[in-house]
Structures are given as structure tokens and as C-alpha cells.
Specification:
single chain; alpha/beta; nine-stranded mixed β-sheet; 20% strand
Length: 494
């Protein structure tokens, strides 16, 4: 099967969040399974060009219709860690992708509408005829609309579109000028509520709604989140449209790159280890303590569990519960390590204040920022990892924790509920339980789960180690999601 990914990110060359990891990881898995996969990206000036091999011009003159004129583009080709990638560079006064940043501009809707149009124009003019076009999030959500209303009858009638929504909060809201620029026109047609008309703004179109209506299949990044966005506020207004098109909507759990996250050969950790090697896990715990100047255990001293948090610090991640987890762990005689920062100055200031407060505590270290090497060391050295998210479409943190034998303590939302099963309360067989789960958003709920985890560590160390082994036995690689996506592709081709 010939599959083309059209996306605004691909790790590690252009990555802001999980979207980039998914585009790379899924493409790699599909290739391993014998499919031909190509990725089309914007050519940002701020890309990690050191991760592109053999970058060269492949199409010097791609002319893209745009309003009542054409924009000349150069299409580049290069390998990103083995993945075949095309990069579209427009030459126009708009300077769409030479701005020193991936996102954050007032003309965002025009930038990515142009990129999407250029990607389809490139497929048409180059003679590429993919069986599947896989698009991602609002940035490329107009692709199925353009494909079926502009390009299908120009030689691309066999292509089918799968669209994945990673983040429902950002949907791509624009006025009718986008319709004229892209060549879609007919505002009275597209503003209809059954097509692209935004349900809350009568003078706007909604890119993501267009993808739900026009794509052959739509996915989101976990089965639980697929339910949440249809039945709760987490659909950010798209619940009705998803209900109307429920026969072609489902959740596919994201995968984790098991090459990058592998405690057996991780170059960042002190002692490589496999499942069952508890001594290796403990060696990494001691190495982490030494690096962060935490109190180290000596003969005869009461042993202490080490709890950690790794990730963004924002409202979605449950900031109030993260702070409570720190104080609760210390009150229970444990140690706490945090690695993270916030895009919001106020939240960052709160954690800097907390860091200053706890600076002299030998059982606590807060690292405000992000450090790839330290992240690996924390996953390898922690006994438990808290993920108290308010919502979490998929989440990779808990998957990494399981891979590294750090028991996840999570709130039962989205992908967290699909991957972590409570030691005492899950209906799964005992050997399939792998962590601790709570449901509510208040501090006693967090304590109920984290307290049980700490109790088990103190009182039943053999059972705690057994739970670690259960978690490390899970396969959350791209293996199963890759097959799920192939099944979807084959279904929409039938």
C-alpha cells in the first residue's frame, strides 16, 4: 500500500508535541510492515536540519493556484532517520514558513491552508497516486475537502483519506476568504452546517469539522478519548458532528517508540536493565539520587520510595494535584523529583516559589525546565510516577513509566484509562494489573491512589516488584496501533 502523510510536524525534525512523535512512529511502523510511506511537511526555517540526510531539491517549480494567481514553490526531499520526507517551500511575500517558529501567528489559518493545498498540488503534478492520504489535526484538515471537491476528478479519484485528531481544542476557525484563496469558493455551500459551517460562529468555517464530514475515516488517539469527545465537553463543540458521523469515527491508542525508550540499552541511564532485574532498577535510583543531591540510603536507614512527575506544568496536567503529590509524598517519608516547565508565567512562578521553599529538603528536587537525559534517568530511577491529568487524549508518560518499571499513578481519563489498570480495583486478572488509578479531581482522590502505592512499597515489597513486572510486560509499542491503522486503511479502500 502507498501511504502519504500530510502533517505540520514530524519528530525529530519538526516537533512541538506528541503529533510529531505519532507521524514519525506510525510511518516507521507502516514501513516495517512492507508499505511505501512518504511524509509531506512545510519547510520551516527553524527545523532541525541536522536530522535530515541528503536534503536536495526534487521539484524546483511547483506552481500552486492561490486566489487569482499562482505561488511558486520548491519541493525538497530528504531522509529523516530513514523516513522519506518532502518539504514544501513557498516563495511568496507571505513568507509562510520562514518566521523562526512553527506556530503562533495571526495568519495561522492561511499558512496551513496554503500548505495543504500545495501538498495536494504536489501529489497531482508529480504523478504520485497514494492509496491512502493520512492527515493530522486542524492544520491539514482541509485536505479531504480539497481532495474530493477539487482534485478527485483530476486523476486522484482512488485516494482515500484517514484523518487523525490529536487535539480537539484547536479546530482551525476562519472566514470565507480562505475558501476563495484555496479555490473552493462557494461560501453559501461550505458555510452550511452539514459541511464546514461552524456551529457557534455563523460567519466562520471550521477546518476540523470539514475533516470529520469529508474524510473516509476519522480517528483520535485513544478509545476512551473517542468516547469522551462525543459525550463530554472535551469535544469542544464537535460532539454533534461526531455523533452524525459515528460510523466512521474511532479511537486508536498511540504507540511509544520502543527504540528510543528502552531501559535495556538506554545511553542516558546509569545501569541498563530488563524486566525482572530489580537490582538494575535500584542502581538507577541511587544514580538519580546522587545526581540530584537527594538523601542516599545508608545501612540501617529506613528506605524511602521515590515518586516523580515528568511533563508540562499546565491546567490540563492537574497542577494543583501535582503540587499536592509533592507535599503528600514528603509527609509519607518518601522522596519527590519533578522535571517540567509551564508555558504560563504564573504557573512557572508558583513552581519556582515551591522550589525555593523546598530547596533545603534532602528528599525533594524540582527541576524547572526540560532535560532529555534527566528525563530518562528519572523514568529509570523512580519507583512511582504521578500523572494526575484533568484530561489526556492519549499520554505517553505513563507508557514510558511502565516500560521502565516505574508504577504509574494516574487519573482515569483518556489514554490513561486505556493503559493503566488498578492494582486492587481493576476487573482484569491480577497479572494484568499495572498501576494505581483514581477518578475525581480533588486532593483526597489523589491521596487514595498514591497512598495505596506508597503503602504497597513499604509493606509488601514483593507484591510491588510483581506489579513492576506486570507493567514491563505490556507492549505499548507501535505494533498494535500500526495494525489497527492498516485495518482502517483496508476498510476505507473496500
Amino acid at each position: 500500500m502507498f501511504i502519504t502523510m500530510i502533517a505540520s510536524e514530524c519528530a525529530p525534525v519538526a516537533k512541538v508535541g506528541g503529533l510529531g512523535d505519532v507521524v514519525y512512529g506510525l510511518s516507521r511502523e507502516l514501513e516495517i510492515r512492507g508499505n511505501a510511506v512518504e511524509i509531506i511537511l512545510p519547510k520551516y526555517d527553524c527545523m532541525r536540519y541536522d536530522h535530515i540526510w541528503d536534503l536536495q531539491v526534487t521539484h524546483p517549480d511547483l506552481w500552486v493556484p492561490w486566489l487569482n494567481y499562482h505561488v511558486r514553490c520548491t519541493v525538497w526531499f530528504g531522509f529523516v532517520h530513514g523516513r522519506k520526507c518532502f518539504f514544501i517551500e513557498p516563495h511568496s511575500h507571505d513568507n509562510f514558513f520562514n518566521r523562526g517558529s512553527y506556530y503562533g501567528f495571526v495568519d495561522e489559518h492561511m499558512r496551513f491552508a496554503f500548505f495543504t493545498k500545495a501538498a495536494l498540488e504536489f501529489l497531482l503534478q508529480s504523478g504520485k497516486r497514494p492509496d491512502i492520504i493520512h492527515t493530522h489535526d486542524w492544520q491539514t484538515a482541509l485536505a479531504p475537502v480539497m481532495l474530493y471537491d477539487l482534485y478527485q476528478h483530476g486523476g486522484m479519484e482512488k485516494a482515500r483519506v484517514c484523518h487523525t485528531i490529536h487535539n480537539f481544542k484547536h479546530q482551525g476557525i476562519a472566514g470565507e476568504n480562505v475558501l476563495w484563496f484555496t479555490g473552493l469558493g462557494r461560501p453559501e455551500y461550505y458555510f452550511h452546517k452539514d459541511r464546514l459551517g461552524d456551529d457557534f460562529n455563523p460567519s466562520a468555517i471550521n477546518y476540523m469539522k470539514g475533516a470529520v464530514v469529508y474524510a473516509n475515516f476519522v480517528t483520535t488517539v485513544s478509545p476512551r478519548h473517542a468516547w469522551e469527545v462525543r459525550h463530554t465537553d472535551w469535544g469542544y463543540g464537535l460532539g454533534h458532528t461526531l455523533h452524525l458521523h459515528q460510523e466512521k469515527f474511532g479511537g486508536v491508542l498511540n504507540g511509544l517508540d520502543y527504540d528510543m525508550w528502552n531501559p535495556g540499552n538506554d545511553p542516558y541511564i546509569d545501569t541498563p536493565y530488563e524486566a525482572g532485574d530489580y537490582a538494575g532498577k535500584q542502581a538507577n535510583k541511587q544514580a538519580l539520587r546522587k545526581k540530584l543531591w537527594l538523601r542516599e540510603e545508608e545501612t540501617g536507614e529506613t528506605k524511602r520510595p521515590l515518586v516523580a512527575y515528568v511533563g508540562r506544568l499546565d491546567a490540563q496536567k492537574g497542577v494543583h494535584l501535582i503540587k499536592h503529590a509533592i507535599r503528600y509524598t514528603l509527609a509519607r517519608g518518601g522522596q519527590f523529583v519533578l522535571l517540567g516547565s509551564s508555558p504560563e508565567m504564573g504557573i512557572n512562578a508558583e513552581f519556582w516559589q515551591l522550589k525555593h521553599e523546598l530547596n533545603d529538603d534532602p528528599n525533594c528536587h524540582l527541576e524547572i525546565g526540560y532535560d532529555e537525559e534527566l528525563a530518562h534517568m528519572i523514568y529509570a530511577g523512580a519507583d512511582m510516577l504521578v500523572v494526575p491529568s484533568m484530561f489526556e487524549p492519549c499520554g505517553l508518560t505513563q507508557m514510558i513509566a511502565l516500560r521502565y518499571g516505574s508504577l504509574p499513578v494516574v487519573r482515569a481519563v483518556g489514554g490513561l484509562a486505556d493503559t493503566v489498570f488498578d492494582y486492587e480495583q481493576s476487573e482484569l486478572p491480577r497479572e494484568q494489573r499495572n498501576g494505581f488509578v483514581f477518578h475525581e479531581t480533588h486532593e483526597p482522590a489523589l491521596e487514595s491512589a498514591l497512598g495505596r502505592a506508597i503503602d504497597l512499597w513499604y509493606e509488601k515489597p514483593a507484591a510491588f516488584r510483581e506489579l513492576i513486572a506486570n507493567g514491563m510486560a505490556y507492549d505499548y509499542s507501535w505494533n498494535q496501533p500500526g495494525q489497527h491503522y492498516l485495518d482502517i486503511y483496508q476498510h476505507i479502500q473496500a
